[in-house]
Each structure stands twice: as structure tokens, then as C-alpha cells.
Amino acid sequence: MNQHDYRQALIDKVELPVAQYEITNSFGKTAYLTAGDGRPVVCLHGAGAGAVTWYPSIGAIAKGFHIIAPDIVGYGESDKPDAPYDRPYFSAWLRAFLETLGIDKTYIVGLSQGGAIALQFALENPQMVDKLVVVDSGALGAQPSLLPMLGMIWMNSFPSSIANRFISRYLLFNPENRDANHGHYSIEVLKKRGGNNAFTQGRGATVSAMTEKELGQIRNQTLIIWGEDDQLFSIKHAEAAVQMMPNARLHRIKEAGHLPLMDKPEIFNDCVIQFLSSE
Asked: How far apart are CA 38 and CA 198, in angstroms?
């Protein structure tokens, strides 16, 4: 199987029909997936693979909303330019993406690095964000410990099934909860030209800590979801963040790691849907 086969295998796991599109603007090409109807929900994946990371959640959430899951610039099927790959860059990309689609306000769900991008976007463009969900998010002060960091360097420098298996033990409570095609797709994307640009050129800038003042300025209703067994970013950073953000609350998921949408998909999806649906 090749990169596109692995991607399609993950898309095929979604319960509802998924459409695939591309747009082009000043940031180059952005590929994205859509499913469902209703109010838009933009899902931002973490620092790896692409939009197909949301395969456990798209079907459930799209039953009541219009899911838009982009391959963030630098990832997946989107362009991978030479760029700073820091929070302001990704936030500007997201604004351009939404403007190209004609979306002036949306729910945003961000995972890991995608959570950091969502937080920066809400800080800079609060009027464009309805509710915000950040999942095991970067930018809240957490820094990977030594072994996970070594695993990420290994995976981005020499992508292989061995490196993927090594890092998976730090991303999930149970690595078997992750569809094997997600790992295969991650490897194939990294092998392509520019596949590790976001990692090597960004140098972790996107997940660096936001200040208490910045977090305090994010007043959108925010749900912080965290896997209690996250070995990459400790839950203590989520606990601190809810004290800084005036309209944030924390939901813990037991027996879940850095990717709770894969470890506990039903619990995760119900939590997101209830929050987005509530008044």
C-alpha cells in the first residue's frame, strides 16, 4: 500500500460519507476533509499525519455538525513550504483557510499542536471562534519528557515502523487502540519531500508556553479535554490552564493517553458533542 491507500483506509472507517477537497491561497495548497451538515466545526490535528487523525471522531460529530478537517500546512496532503511554523504562522494560515471557504465564525477543536494553533487563533481572532475545544494541548506549558522527545526526533529524522512503534507507547494508553494505517500514513508523509519541514523548521515553537496574560485574554467558552495517562503532556498543565482562562473547564478521560480520541473514542466524542450542543 502507498500513502494514499493508507489515507483512504482511514477515511473508509468513518461512518458517514466524507468528501475530499483542496483550496489554494497565499499559503499554497491546503487539502481538507468534510462530512455532515449544520454549524461548522474545524478540527485541527496534532504534529503528525494529517486530517485523517480524526478518523475516530468525524462520523460521530458529523451527525450533528459540518466537520471540516484540514491537513494543516506542512502536513498530510497539503503543501510543505519553507516557513517558520510557529503559532502566528499557523494562526495566519487558519484565518486564510477560513476566509477562502467563506467561514466567518466556527467551532474549533484542536488536538495537541492543533490545540496550540486553536488557542493562538482565538487570541488573535476571538470574533471568529464560537466555542473552543483543546485536547491534550500544546502551549499550556507542557514540554515533552526525554524519551518521547527522542522518539519524535527519531520518527522525523528516520521515519520507520520501528520508530513509529516506539513513539506510539507514549501517545496512547494502549497502542493497539490506534489503527495501524494511521502509523503507516504518518511514516509515508514524513518520507516525502518537505515531510519533516514543520518539525525541523518549527523547532517546537508552536507548542511553547503561552503567557498567563495571553491565556487570560481568551474568553471564548473553552473545554479542555485531557487523557489522565498522557505521557507526553502532563495533565497538571491543563489543571493550571483552567485557573488562567476565565471561561474554561476541564474534562478528564481515564485510561487515555495523549490521543484520547483513539484510546476512548465514545467517551471523547460524547464529551465534544455535548459541549458543542449546549447553550
From this structure: 32
Angle at 108 between CA 152 and CA 240, to 5 degrees: 65
Distance set, CA 181 to CA 89, 134, 200, 257, 269 (Å): 29, 25, 24, 19, 21
Strand partners, 142: none
Residue among 87, 67, 82, 89 at smallest CA distance from 21:
67
3-state secondary structure of 222: strand
Which pTM does this prediction carry?
A: 0.97
DSSP assignment letter at 205 = G
| Per-residue pLDDT reduced to its tens digit, 223-274 | 999 999 999 999 999 999 999 999 999 999 999 999 999 999 999 999 999 9
Strands, E assignment, 112-195: 129-135
Q: How far apart are CA 108 and CA 102, in angstroms?
A: 15
Task: Note the pLDDT tens digit of each residue in 155-193.
Answer: 999 999 999 999 999 999 999 999 999 999 999 999 999
Evaluated on CA atoms 261, 267, 268, 269, the torsion sign reads positive
Domains and CATH numbers, the chain: 3-277 (3.40.50.1820)
> What span, in angstroms and rounded, lies between the C-alpha atoms of 89 and 215?
18
- C-alpha cell of 137? 494541548
Query: Given a cut of 80, is residue 16 above it in pLDDT?
Result: yes
Q: CA-CA distance, 241 to 245, in Å (whole number)?
A: 6
Position 25 confidence tier, pLDDT thresholds 50, 70, 90 = very high
